[in-house]
Design brief:
With 394 residues, the protein is α/β, with parallel strands linked by helices. The chain folds into 2 domains: 123 residues, Aspartate Aminotransferase, domain 1, CATH 3.90.1150; 232 residues, Type I PLP-dependent aspartate aminotransferase-like (Major domain) (Aspartate Aminotransferase, domain 2, 3-Layer(aba) Sandwich), CATH 3.40.640.10. Helices cover 46% and strands 14% of the residues. The strands form 4 sheets. It has a 7-stranded mixed β-sheet with strand order 2-10-9-8-7-3-4, sandwiched between helices. Strands 1-12 form a two-stranded parallel ribbon. Strands 5-6 form a two-stranded antiparallel sheet. The longest helix has 33 residues.
């Protein structure tokens, strides 16, 4: 039977990681993999996370199962972090998940349970796994214009025109902040216009909030999500703890559902728990318990926020350095978008041939669509990348 399986197309980013590891050149630079790194190229354990693990070690007395939806203290702390003062507990259901990816998958499954004929609109471009999951599920996926390759900003007029074609029962997948493929973000005024379109069409927004705290700040990065949550009767939010808590391998995420009323909330909460039961029964607890410990301990929460700010500001500084270096080398401001983008990523708008030349001639690895991980740089490698970009003719 297993011989009937078909070969699967390899993940391009994982393939790029393998190619980088096999490269024997000294001074090679990995700007492909989507993981935060410090100036030494290391992905550190955050101070508050380390201390939380110690406290859990000292106090934990059992490894028995958690609740199907995950422990309430984790879900309550995360919904508060995401929604802030727009949180309406009487209308909000939540589900602990296996990372942000698990939250997305369960969110798609929940929406399909409610409407088997749903379509999911996704930004062009988007995180490749969005489309891969939807394709695997057999869900119709519809792209909407998002990135303008000429300006390296948001094609907002095109986005609005495409979203207007959605209908009630469709799902609109939105990046909450730090757009994961381009770094190009919506302004708050643009978020207001998106809300108006959603109100008119009746489509349900599903926000992928993977980078809260990596862009303009923990509260600022949630502004678009909170606006949607405050204005619309039904909203799905998939949030990840991988980046802002640095617990990638512990796979902690949450699916939040905002419903029209308490009766629908209870119905939704039951459906969410059912989905976990059918998928993996009980969600993993270690990463979730770390997050809950940090967020509910004032001293740890303060230290975590401070370190998260250090990470955020470090990436902004690298953006500004790279933009300045490119301005000097090119004699123009055409690369200033790098400083305006937010989060770990920027999309250069380079051709596949130019990306290949940057890799072959300089040992600098970017994703094929010219997405680069700003967090993979440091003060010493910024000038090297800038020279490679100019020499490749970008």
């Amino acid at each position: 039977m297993l011989s009937n399986l078909k070969p699967q197309e390899p993940d391009k980013i994982l393939a790029l990681m393998g190619e980088f590891k096999a490269d024997t050149r000294q001074g090679k630079i990995d700007l492909g993999v989507g993981v935060y790194k410090d100036a030494t190229g290391h992905t550190p354990v955050m101070r508050a996370v380390k201390e939380a693990e110690k406290r859990i070690w000292d106090s934990q007395t059992t490894k028995s199962y958690t609740a199907l939806a995950g422990e309430a203290d984790y879900r309550d702390a995360m919904t508060q972090m995401v929604l802030g003062d727009v949180l309406d507990a009487g209308r909000t259901a939540s589900l602990a998940s296996v990372g942000g990816t698990g939250a997305l998958r369960q969110g798609f499954e929940l929406a399909r349970m409610a409407n088997p004929a749903m379509r999911v609109f996704y930004s062009d471009p988007t995180w490749p796994n969005h489309v891969s999951i939807l394709k695997f599920m057999g869900v119709e996926a519809v792209p909407y214009r998002y990135f303008d390759n000429a300006t390296r900003g948001v094609d907002f007029e095109g986005m609005k025109q495409d979203l207007a074609h959605a209908v009630k029962g469709d799902v609109i997948l939105l990046h909450g902040c730090c757009h994961g493929l381009t770094g190009a973000n919506l302004t708050l005024d643009q978020w207001h216009e998106v809300v108006a379109i959603l109100e008119k069409t009746g489509a349900i927004p599903m926000v992928d909030l993977a980078y809260q705290g990596f862009g303009d700040g923990l509260e600022e990065d949630a502004a678009g999500t909170r606006l949607i949550a405050s204005r619309l009767p039904e909203v799905l939010i998939a949030a990840s703890c991988s980046k802002n808590f640095g617990i990638y391998r512990d796979r902690s995420g949450i699916l939040i559902a905002i419903t029209p009323d308490s009766a629908t909330r209870d119905l939704t909460q039951g459906a969410m728990a059912f989905l976990n039961r059918q998928t993996f029964s009980f969600p993993p607890d270690h990463g979730a318990r770390i997050v809950a410990t940090v967020l509910t301990s004032p001293d740890l929460a303060t230290d975590w926020r401070a370190e998260l700010e250090e990470v955020r500001k470090g990436m902004l500084q690298l953006r500004e350095l790279l933009a300045a270096e490119l301005r000097n080398l090119s004699g123009s401001d055409r690369f200033d978008f790098v400083a305006h983008h937010r989060g770990m990523f920027s999309r250069l708008g380079a051709s596949p041939e130019q990306v290949k030349r940057i890799k072959d001639d300089f040992g600098i690895y970017l994703v094929g669509d010219s997405r680069l991980n700003i967090a993979g740089l440091n003060n010493d490698t910024v000038p090297i990348l800038a020279r490679a970009i100019i020499d490749a003719g970008v």
